[in-house]
Amino acid sequence: MANEKWRDIPEFEGLYKLSNYGRVKSLPRETMMNSPNGGSYMSKEKIRKAKVDVKFNKTTQQNIYSLGMTLYRDAIAYHYSLPRLTYYVFKEKFNLENSSELISFKDHDGRNTHISNLVRTTIGQIKLASYREKRAISHLSVLSKPVTQFDGQGKVIAHFPSMYEAGRLTGFNSRNIAEVVSGQGHMFKGYFWKAGIHRRNLSLTKIRRNTERDEINTTLTKRLKIRFKDKSSIPAIVNLSLASMPGEKWKAAPGYQGLYLVSNYGRVKALGKITQGLQQKWMPEQIQKIMVDFRKDRKGKWVAGSTFACMAVEGRKKQVSIPRLVYFLFVKRYDIADTNVRVYYKDGNSLNVKYSNLCLYGGVRSFVKQK
Questions:
Q1: pTM for the whole thing?
Q2: Domain that residue 233 falls in
Q3: Do 257 and 196 share a structural domain?
Q4: What is the pLDDT of residues 250-307, one digit of tens each?
Q5: Of 306, 311, 305, nearest to 324 (Cα)?
Q6: Which long-range contacts (CB under 8 A, 24 or more apart) does 216-221 make?
Q7: Which letter does DSSP use for residue 216 in this model?
Q8: Is-contact 270 256, C-beta < 8 A?
Q9: Which of left, alpha, beta for 196 (phi over 0: left; psi -120 to 50: alpha)?
Q10: Quick check: 265 and 323 in contact, CB under 8 A?
């Protein structure tokens, strides 16, 4: 690149070079082959790909980027921040392991690792500059705002003129309350908190996740090689949308009333609840990801088998058979705990757990008559 200069990276001489642009070059060298016959090969010179870490700044509504690089010596991996390494090699030496010494960017773009854009600083100086340039909001200004406290059912408990006062009067950490109010969670110490003075109770069913969740189980979609045209044709088995599908009905899962609902399409919905333990966090309702029991057929090929969903009650997790639940709730009641009674599929497709595709057999051959 224009006016690009290269230098050896200390302790990696002969292996890598670093440029004043923050690019890393892997040098050609003889590499031993890890094979029974041994041997070696000569690797080619190439530019290494940097690892990009992206975080979102809610104040500026922009992404914050940071670049990293992994270097290898004697089969040991060493992880470095690219701007720190560039400043160290081209500007001045400092303790790379000292986390209090930071490298910042004049143009605030972490992707621009050219030496002319790098500044040695501290976390205090970075925060102060961020507040002055309105790229961050000081916790002092946040803590001075009024806040409303709600109980676990969403009922209004108290109003406070500031988060300072809320922390002082309740004995809770005011900064933790501020984190919840700013969107880093929903609850603290078993209570909901919301900025401002509110008279109405919270509607718990309207509380959603802080981060958007994908409406498709992409991992299972790829594993099953499922294809669909648009969102309206997403198969139930990989559909994670909270919106009900056409004709979909929901009933409470036996043994999990108030915790989970099961639909006639074989989807499982975890209802919003407060988790157990010291943190007592709020978990908004969501569609559970379906698990598939893959097994090998007679030809040794992996094929999809039964479908399950993970459910929990009183801290105990269990994998529950989805077709058994669907048949019990939407076709006919039976002894769901009897393992001799099994559910089969009319079309032979174990992934089609819609109620109309299920039939029940006792043991292997005896048929249980349906009403």
A1: 0.54
A2: 218-367
A3: no
A4: 999 999 988 999 999 999 999 888 776 666 677 788 899 999 998 888 888 888 889 9
A5: 306
A6: 216/240, 217/289, 217/290, 220/289, 220/290, 220/292
A7: B
A8: no
A9: left
A10: no
